[in-house]
Amino acid sequence: MNRFALAALFALAASAAQASHNSATPPGPVATGPRQCVVLLHGMARSRLYMHELERDLEAAGYATVNVSMPMRKETIEQLALRVDPLVQRCRDGGARTIHFVTHSLGGLVVRYWLHGHALPEAGRFVMLGTPNRGSEIADHYLQARFQSRWYLLTTGPAGRQIGTAVDSLPNRLGPPPMPTAVIAGTRAASPALDGIFNGPNDGKVSVASTRLPGAAHLVVDSSHYFLTRSSLVLHQVRAFLANGKFDDLSSQGARPATSNGHPGAGRDPPAAGSHHFASRPA
Predict the structure, then answer these.
(1) Rounded to whole angstroms, how far apart are CA atoms 71 and 109?
(2) Can you tell me the distance from the alpha carbon of 219 to that of 271, in angstroms, rounded to the nearest whole number?
(3) How far is CA 259 from the centre of its chain?
(4) Yes or no: is domain 31-280 CATH 3.40.50.1820?
């Protein structure tokens, strides 16, 4: 069995475990002002359906949402960013006074690129889930491997070439977003077959170190990459940051401080200033 098939099997097994692991974290705060709109943007190889849990939760909290599918595997990040304009315009057409962004993985880089060249007078807050803000170690690995780079490019497309960790890579050329920003990273590696690619805690696709962004609030949770948008803890904290500009302390609400890999006493990535580590308690 090749490495890719093995990784897929581990991911499926982790998905089942993750579903039973998420706790019933209470809903987060509701929208704190009128006419607030959230643009949702999924990551690589996903569609708007992947963001449905977030969409439903935010609408229940009083936000209008815009959630569409994007051709993440067919276009460069620059081309994908052009598609953000009509999403923002839909918020404006609906009368939004404040426009937020909530993104997963590559979607965060697309919005960061868009913000780099656009003014947003209605700017609210920006939450990224599992976004490789410092580039992807997986991209580095597969683009350098002669027999595996073709597979990687077929599954990630033009954007996959742009997200390495080199100093001159697109993620590392982008400046900080011009709006209050938060990042939520996972530590439940769903693909042990890929562990050798990372030098520290990771969510199976993106390392915790890569998600960090200067000036952004940072939260580490016990979740795999693809379950970040379904974790009740993450849903709560997205609401909290959009409403209040900071994460809630849920240590008394069924969450506990966690080390970087989700196991007490075994952390390898101490939190930076402004960072928080939480893990959902098993239900």
Answers:
(1) 14
(2) 9
(3) 19
(4) yes
Mean pLDDT of 164-171: 93
Q: How does pLDDT run across 20-40, given as a tens digit for each residue? A: 344 467 777 888 778 999 999
Cα distances from 167 to residues 30, 79, 91, 107, in angstroms, run 39, 22, 35, 20
The residues, ordered by sequence, that sit 6+ positions from 222 with a Cβ below 8 Å of its Cβ are: 21, 186, 187, 188, 258, 262, 278, 279, 280
Question: How far is CA 179 from each of CA 61, 64, 204, rounded to the nearest angstrom?
Answer: 21, 19, 29
8-12, 146-150, 163-167, 261-265 — which is least confidently predicted?
261-265
CA–CA separation, 115 and 109 (whole Å): 10
Give CA angle at 52 (48, 56), nearest 5°: 140
DSSP letters of 52-104?
A: HHHHHHHHHTT-EEEE----TTTS-HHHHHHTHHHHHHHHHHTT-SEEEEEEE
SS3 7: helix
Which ranges in the chain belong to alpha helices (H)? 3-21, 52-60, 77-82, 84-93, 106-116, 137-144, 149-160, 170-173, 208-211, 232-244
β-strand pairing of 255-257 with 275-280:
antiparallel
Question: How is residue 225 written in tokens?
Answer: 């990459």
**pLDDT at position 131 over 60:** yes
Domain ranges of the chain: 31-280
Nearest to 50 by CA among 13, 102, 4: 102
Q: How far is CA 123 from CA 43, 98, 99, in A?
A: 22, 6, 5
